Amino acid sequence: MKFLYKTGIHIYALAIRLASLFNPKARMAIKGRKNWTKNLSKKIETNSRYIWLHCASLGEFEQGRPVIEEIKKQYPQYRIILTFFSPSGYEIRKNYPLADIVSYLPFDTPRNAKKFLKIVQPEKAFFIKYEFWHFYISELQKQGIPVYLISGIFREGQHFFKNNAWGRWYKKMLFRFKHFFVQNKKSAELLSSIGVNNFTVSGDTRFDRVAAIAAAAKEIPAVEKFRGQSKLIIAGSTWKPDEELLAAFINNTSNVKMIVAPHEVSAANINRLKQMLKKPAQLFSNIQNNVPGECQVLIIDSIGVLSSLYRYGDVAYIGGGFGVGIHNILEAATYGLPVIFGPNYSKFKEAVDLAERGGAYAIHNQNELNTTFKSLLENPENLKNSAAVCKKYVEKNTGATSVIIKKVFNKQHSLAH
């Protein structure tokens, strides 16, 4: 099995190299890993104490971020090395100030794992959510470096829980972890069912992150002026299928305003979105404090402001649900905004939870979107109830970071499962 895994990694690395000839994202992944040994060695400070956090991409970074912040606050003697697998995470967070080193994770081969750990020599390692790289995890165990999983979530369909040769081999990886901090009881039950009992149901660290974001949200006077006395929909991280539905709704609505923050902010995509709108629209970069009175739609053509926009909204629509899966709904929920999204949300615990509780709504088509918006925006009681569900849900689920720090750094003798 090890041979098959190793072969698969080499084939995958080769495929990325071939794809880099015509795919910009693959090109960044290869370029970013070029001469990694030399580049990493230059950045490492001899005699410093390192903690290593690894994330697949940007979403996992948001789960690891509260832990980094707390380590830096409580244990400033440690330096942080942050690694990403994906260019979409690395490129956006390569200058993250609380990480002393930000790097791509070299491909998971025995040689790379040994070299990486020899250079970094971390005292502890944290993998976020569902990153399981066999050779890195094996080498960490061999060297006696404790490795923890943060905000882990397990499902029955994963290899670990299958009773076949591949599943049994994958399962062994779990026994190399020092401790699992999982999001829910179901994950804990699955681990327990295969004899893994070193877990704590701590919840999802993203709740701590969004609560901190809300507490430090920036005021945006232009958006407040744009909103005026109107009901305001904030549509965040939208894709084309989302935008087609949203445009059709707002084009036939007069007494509601909308802010659209597309996932892709390229000029071509922004122009495409503008052409879909029949109502007066402005780009965020153009308005400053001068908001035309007739403007009904505001298009966000920059990144980094979305999390602060939700404070001004009444209802949120989160994109991605007509593709591989929805984007972060917690940033909106923490402000008490009811959340609407497309049908592909079942892998997101918070979306399932809020849909069951009446704080979130999944829609499949134009009619369902129109009906849901009207039900919330034209019925104050519905809006109030849904908003309360969302706010309470976030408040109830904060605290995972504190649990992790206490357990990892032995600030108390024991924590019950």
From TrEMBL:
InterPro entries reported for this sequence: Glycos_transf_N, Glycos_transf_N_sf, Kdotransferase
Subcellular location: Cell membrane
Protein's name according to its UniProt entry: 3-deoxy-D-manno-octulosonic acid transferase
GO molecular function: Kdo transferase activity
Organism: Tangfeifania diversioriginum
Stated role: Involved in lipopolysaccharide (LPS) biosynthesis. Catalyzes the transfer of 3-deoxy-D-manno-octulosonate (Kdo) residue(s) from CMP-Kdo to lipid IV(A), the tetraacyldisaccharide-1,4'-bisphosphate precursor of lipid A.
UniProt-listed Enzyme Commission number(s): 2.4.99.12
Pfam families given in the database record: Glycos_transf_N
Domain of life where this protein originates: Bacteria
Keywords recorded for this protein, A-Z: Cell membrane, Lipopolysaccharide biosynthesis, Membrane, Transferase
Catalytic reaction annotation: lipid IVA (E. coli) + CMP-3-deoxy-beta-D-manno-octulosonate = alpha-Kdo-(2->6)-lipid IVA (E. coli) + CMP + H(+)
Enzyme class (EC, first level): transferase
Classification lineage: Bacteria, Pseudomonadati, Bacteroidota, Bacteroidia, Marinilabiliales
Entry similarity comment: Belongs to the glycosyltransferase group 1 family.
Residues the record marks as active site: 60 (proton acceptor)
UniProt pathway: Bacterial outer membrane biogenesis; LPS core biosynthesis
GO biological process, one term: lipid A biosynthetic process
One Gene Ontology CC term in the entry: plasma membrane
Record bears the keyword Lyase: no
Main location: membrane
Domain 3-deoxy-D-manno-octulosonic-acid transferase N-terminal residues, every copy: 42-208
